[in-house]
Amino acid sequence: MTEIQGAGVALVTPFNADGSVDFETLGNLIEFQIKEGMNYLVSLGTTGETATLSSEEKKKIWKFTKDKVNGRVPLVAGIGGNHTHEIVEAIKSFDTEGYCAILSVSPYYNKPTQEGIYQHYKAVAEASSLPVILYNVPGRTGSNMTAQTTLRLANDFKNIVAIKEASGNFAQFSEILRDKPENFLLISGDDPTTLPMMALGAVGIISVVGNAYPKEVATLAQLCAEGKYVEARKIHNKLLHITDLCFVEGNPCGVKYILQELGFGKDVVRLPLVSVSSTTQDKIREEITILAE
Hints:
single chain, alpha/beta, TIM Barrel, 8 strands, 47% helix
């Protein structure tokens, strides 16, 4: 799965002032990502506010993104949630043309046992004609998928090919890397951990801050892949503060305000999310100025 190595970006879903999907800005953002060297794009990961999009909106966004990209970079579709039957049906009905894999977040809110997580992903894997990327983000889902569960899934299902890991648990990362099948991939799911995770053996990042700074994120991943960690560290340190500001009042609220300031649409999010506060706006504008120097 070379298509999902290096730097990927979890695209935001731009909205117009009335809350409708802003396809013009989405198209501009896609062009920006490709021009600046992003290796692949994730359409409708959780950063895309999928929890507040209708099924019809999702279909339109997937098709628009596929048509806009037109085969220039690999595409991954985010199809995940906490209603297993609904996710299975969505995967079965998904038009796979133009997409190389599915990214599926671990079930949130329900707080299933490890066996429940395993059975959920078993159903996902059996329903999918595309390779599946697991996504462990316990800070958002309320439950951690252990290394043992990840490895069990990786060994039991050939089409489960990778995990996007955002647990921040380096002991867990190390166990996965030590015991995984040879071709199973570990991907950073948290921008600040990209460098150390790639030093351990991860193959890249699915980034949030990459929406606004794709060139920097792509270069960081490339330098890490080449073992040039001293050079990579400079970019890592450069992005730390702006990355913090992406998340200080919730994702994608921060990165949408950054994108607005960079000329990509409006910082409109759907309730229950709200735009970042004026205090955070001031800090973001200050950091954008610093990064532009």
